Amino acid sequence: MRRKRYATSLLALSLTLTACTSGGGKEDGAAFGSMDRDDKGTLKIGYFNEEAFYMQYGNAFQAMFPNVELEVLSTEEAMLADDPVTAMEDFIGEQQPDAVLLTEEQYADLAQDGKLYDLDAAVKQDKFDLEGFLPSVIDLLKARGGGKLYGLSPSFSSQALYYNKDMFDKYGVPYPTDGMSWDEVLQLAARFPVKKGDNNVAMDKVGADDALYGLSLPMQTKDSFELIREIGEAKGLLYADSEAKTVSFDTPEWKAIVQSVVDGYESGSISSPPSNGGGGQGGGGLMIRGMGGKSTISFGPATMRFMSGQAAMTVDGPLLMNMLGIGGGGMKMATKAAGSSDGGAAKAPGEDINWDLVSIPTDPSQQGVTGSMSLDNIFAINASSENLSAAWEFLKYANGEQLAKTSSKSSPALSSRTAFKNEADGKNIDAFYNEKINEQALLQENSLPQGFAQSFEEMAAGQINQAVQGSQSVDDALKAIQSQGQDLLTKALADEEAAE
């Protein structure tokens, strides 16, 4: 449920930037001087889409500095590459921009390689206000930057627990509250009368139309292991240690989590994710058009249990809030009836849902610590830049109060500046802002050999599915995950050592 969610990926595709200047101004190669309106120069902008850049940033920035010539370079190829981290490194090396807007993974990699400029001097010299930012955003930027601040992010994504108030009222179940543990949420989910769909029979089937679940997994959940991993991380558990070269999964702590989740899958109180990740499966669905109607995202029936009133709770990001009709604009929603020949629009799912949200479940031992926060739009400066003032001026604008104020009324993204939270029509928007970063999980993620985490989770999901379907016990699943996981880690470490 962490990091590469479809909601934040959508925002990442619509917001990607690089910038540089030459000539004029007050550049001295060392200090960050403030530019005047009359200063001349050239600002090279690398952005996913030129039209989107001018609409989002360029027109207003040009009005502020009319003598700065803007040139937009497309980063589309790098952002859509199979390996966007390496592709962005190549882009920066070839184009030598002064500033760049990166995804979180690109930011972490470039910071580690010394390709980004440390912003501490600029922040202090210019007295740039970091106190207006959500502390967790700055903490995550520094954690990803190895303890230093190499970038700023105007927005972030996190998750919250959505709940259907009418369903809770109907069945006499108390509403969830901020700060609940995962154990408490799973207990709430089990109190609803289960009407199972087909997912207890086959993990890739969509549930029946009248299926009812206490907890539906996020629309971007790709496999049955994600919930187990997230609960474990909330408790401070790690499944692999690169330094010790060991996998540690067949333990009483992990078994308790696996057993509770498998029980939920088996009973139907927790919806089992389809094997293809939940979207686009046959039958009707939701179609979202963004970026001026130039892109379309489709969600199949398995993604819409909460919106259709088939789930009492779900854990998801701000995009779902926008789909339910709350928050900044920018998304045009329409439904396509199953088998409709004309593709006509129908009433939007979720329109009649009486819902609210609370903070994502955490563990009492680490209250508020989650791994759900992500940053897909991080502005940073090229360490090789000779035009620091202009690059910094752009970063200040892109992360400034005025743009945050405007964006809060027009974008579904969560503003990093807490004074400009999205308008939420009385909904508990603070639920997205209550999170603390999970530094331990980040350390594990950064230390594991490339490709291992994905391989481990795919393997573990297969074993969990067998336990849910009754073809093996939970104990057998734990032993298999432990053994096969150790083999995967040993091989990944050997491959990494050989590559070096």
From TrEMBL:
This is Multiple sugar transport system substrate-binding protein. InterPro entries: Bact_solute-bd_prot1 (IPR050490), SBP (IPR006059). Transmembrane segments: none annotated. Keywords: Signal, Sugar transport, Transport. The keyword Cell inner membrane does not apply. Pfam families: SBP_bac_8 (PF13416). It comes from the Bacteria. Residues 1-19 form the signal peptide.
